[in-house]
Design brief:
Elements lengths: L14 H11 L3 E6 L11 E6 L4 H13 L4 E4 L5 E3 L4 E7 L7 E7 L2 E7 L4 H10 L2 E2 L11 H6 L9 H4 E7 L5 E5 L4 E3 L2 E3 L7 E11 L2 H18 L20 H7 L6 E2 L2 E3 L7 E3 L5 H19 L8 E3 L2
Parallel strand pairs: 2-5, 3-5, 4-17
Antiparallel strand pairs: 1-2, 6-7, 7-13, 8-13, 9-10, 9-13, 11-12, 14-15, 15-16
C-alpha cells in the first residue's frame, strides 16, 4: 500500500506512547517488530510499533494520537512495494490487512456491477471474487501482488489494463479526520500513480470497482491462460516485490533494458536479478535490505552508462 507518513523520522516512542498503544490495541500491537515479517522482500529492521486497527474509529484514534504527539506513522498492506532499511524505521506502522479486508457487491445496474473492496483486501482476493461471480474487468490484475489500497495508490496494471480503468470511486481517510468519497472523474491517475493536490496524503480505505457480467466458463479460461503466461515469464517462490523499476517513457521496458545490459543473474549478497525476468530482484534466502539497494544502484548505473536512461524504482525505500 502507498506509504503515508507524518512526523520527524528520528522520533521514537516514549513509555507513555507504548502504554497508550497497549491499552488501546492490546495483542494487536507489537513493539520492536522486524519489518522483515511485513514486507514481501522479507527484509528490514525493526519498527518501534506495528499496529493492526480493526475499524475506522480505531484508525482515526491512532492517527489522531500520532499527529497530536508528533509521532511518524506509516500505513502498509502486504508491504509489497516497500523496502525498509536494515536499521529499521521509527514510529508506528499501521497494517490494514486484518481489519480492512472485506469485499462485497453494492450495486447492479444494466450491464454494470459495482463491487466494494476495502483497502486491506489482497488484489488476488478481488480477482478471485470477480471470477467466482462471473464479472469481467479484473483479470488483468491476476498475479499482481499486494493489497487493493496499494494497487489503487500505485495505479497497478499490466499491458492489458490498470486500476484507473476499473475504479469507479474511492473512500479515503483525510488528515483532517474526515472520511471522503471521490468519484473516478475527480481522481488524477497516471502511470503507476494516483496524484493528490495536498502535501499530506490521505489513507485509502475503500475502492469501488465497475465490473461487467460475462460468461463464467470463458472468464475462468482467460484467467487460467493469463496465470500460465505470468508463471512462464516471472519468478515464483522467492521473496520479491514484483517489477522493481518503472518502465521508462522511451518505449523500451525496464526489464528489456536490464537484460540488454547483461545484468540477468547479477547478484549482491543474497539479492539477485532474476534470470527469468530482469525487472525482478529476488531474495535468494539471505538478502539484506542493503544487498537489494546496492544491487538496485548497480542496475541503475549500468543502464544509464549503456543507454543513457534513468530507471526509477517502483518500490519505496524507507527507514534510517
Amino acid at each position: 500500500m502507498l506509504v503515508f507518513c507524518f512526523g520527524e523520522d528520528q522520533v521514537a516512542l516514549s513509555v507513555l506512547d507504548k502504554r497508550w498503544l497497549l491499552e488501546q490495541f492490546q495483542d494487536r500491537v507489537q513493539f520492536d517488530e522486524p519489518m522483515s515479517r511485513h514486507t514481501s522482500f522479507k527484509v528490514g529492521g525493526p519498527a518501534d510499533a506495528v499496529v493492526s486497527p480493526e475499524s475506522i474509529l480505531e484508525l482515526a484514534s491512532l492517527v489522531h494520537y500520532c499527529r497530536r504527539n508528533g509521532l511518524p506513522y506509516l500505513v502498509v498492506g502486504d508491504g509489497t512495494n516497500i523496502i525498509v532499511r536494515d536499521q529499521g524505521i521509527r514510529g508506528v506502522v499501521i497494517v490494514l490487512t486484518i481489519g480492512f479486508n472485506g469485499i462485497d457487491r453494492v450495486e447492479e445496474k444494466d450491464d454494470e456491477v459495482i463491487i466494494r473492496s476495502m483497502a486491506g483486501a489482497r488484489t488476488r482476493s478481488l480477482c478471485r471474487y470477480a471470477i467466482r461471480h462471473a464479472l469481467k474487468g479484473m483479470n488483468f490484475a491476476l498475479g499482481i501482488p499486494g493489497t487493493i489500497g496499494g494497487a489503487i495508490a500505485g495505479n497497478a496494471g499490466t499491458t492489458q489494463s490498470s486500476m484507473a480503468e476499473v475504479v469507479d470511486a474511492i473512500e479515503v481517510f483525510e488528515p483532517s479526520g474526515n472520511v471522503v468519497r471521490y468519484l473516478k472523474k475527480n481522481l488524477c491517475f497516471s502511470y503507476r500513480r494516483l496524484s493528490w493536490k495536498t502535501a499530506e496524503l490521505p489513507i485509502i480505505l475503500t475502492g469501488y470497482f465497475k465490473l461487467h457480467p460475462t460468461d463464467a466458463t470463458q472468464l475462468k479460461k482467460e484467467a487460467s491462460e493469463i496465470m500460465k503466461r505470468r508463471l512462464a515469464k516471472q519468478p515464483a517462490g522467492s521473496p520479491c516485490a514484483g517489477c522493481f523499476f518503472k518502465n521508462p517513457s522511451s518505449g523500451v521496458s525496464a526489464g528489456e533494458l536490464i537484460d540488454r545490459a547483461g545484468l540477468k543473474g547479477e547478484s549482491v549478497g543474497g539479492a539477485q536479478v532474476s534470470s527469468k525476468h530482469a525487472n525482478f530482484i529476488v531474495n535468494t534466502g539471505s538478502a539484506t535490505a542493503e544487498d537489494i539497494l546496492l544491487l538496485m544502484e548497480r542496475i541503475e548505473k549500468n543502464v544509464f552508462r549503456i543507454f543513457g536512461l534513468h530507471l526509477e524504482p517502483e518500490v519505496k525505500i524507507l527507514g534510517y
